[in-house]
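pls ignore typos typing on phone
inosinic acid + seq
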Amino acid sequence: MDTNEFNQRIERILITEDEIKTKIQMVGNRITQDYNGKPILLVSILKGAFVFLADLIRAIKVPCEISFMCAKSYYNGTTSSGKVNITMDISQDISNYHVIIVEDIIDTGRTLKDVIEVLKSRNPLSLKVITLLDKPSRRLVELDTDIALFTIPDLFVVGYGLDCAEYYRNLPYIAVYKE
Ligand code: IMP
Ligand code: MG
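k done
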């Protein structure tokens, strides 16, 4: 993709860098208070959540560990395939951890539902879900999210880790993608 097209397809900024920063500080403080003295494992779902995780852990002021899983439900575009594959799994035993799943966006909810089931079956001390973005109007499965930093309308968004066909993850804000 050339740089002109790259820029033209950014319709508008939906959530600014500052708005993201402010919310992350709030959530970081909350985790710091709620989990103080407990073994924490933050499990991030690649690739989209890596930027969010990187900023979130720096807002947490108590010891915590991180791990990565790879689960995909979108391929090369803006429509869900409806299929979720866990292509990379975490390696450690989670039964002695309070696990927090860190997700970029919940759309239909299929990806997360599968990940939650897999992790629950491994008996963590507790399991919570934090998502940067939530698109509740698109939900196809029932799901409990503990924290959503931003609830957004049914728009395809990119940036801050979120991609369209692998591009735009490097934008420091969340933008609406022009289809
Ligand atoms: P779900 O299984 O339908 O909830 O899809 C979740 C995954 O789809 C997310 O982790 C994203 O990778 C991707 N996704 C859903 N909506 C968007 C969007 O607006 N922009 C970029 N990726 C999205
Ligand atoms: Mg994606």
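The chain has a mean pLDDT of 92. Strands lie at 10-15, 40-46, 65-74, 80-88, 98-106, 126-134, 147-151, 157-158, 174-177. more later
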